[in-house]
Design goal:
The chain has 78 residues and is mainly α. The chain has three helices and two strands, in the order αααββ. The chain is globular, with a radius of gyration of 14 Å.
Length: 78
């Protein structure tokens, strides 16, 4: 918990809005029609990243089917 408190002040927090939930549901439907299953929480994370034009740091390929989503593998070497 001590570590979290030391980095908490440098973090930015984003509000989840109703439109984010609707966009996440739409994203899931579109991707499912393309044969790609995306978990609900991942769809919500992607929707928020898209709305704020953020880079999503991830180590897996769950988000690769999402167009216009900027992603980086934060564990890969530069």
């Amino acid at each position: 918990m001590r570590i979290w408190h030391s980095i908490d002040r440098i973090c930015t927090y984003y509000q989840i809005e109703k439109q984010d939930a609707e966009n996440a549901a739409d994203l899931q439907v579109v991707l499912r029609r393309q044969g790609w299953q995306l978990q609900t929480v991942d769809a919500l994370i992607a929707s928020i990243a898209l709305r704020y034009d953020l880079i999503l740091l991830t180590t897996d390929k769950d988000f690769r089917a999402i167009p216009h989503l900027f992603q980086e593998n934060w564990l890969s070497s530069a």
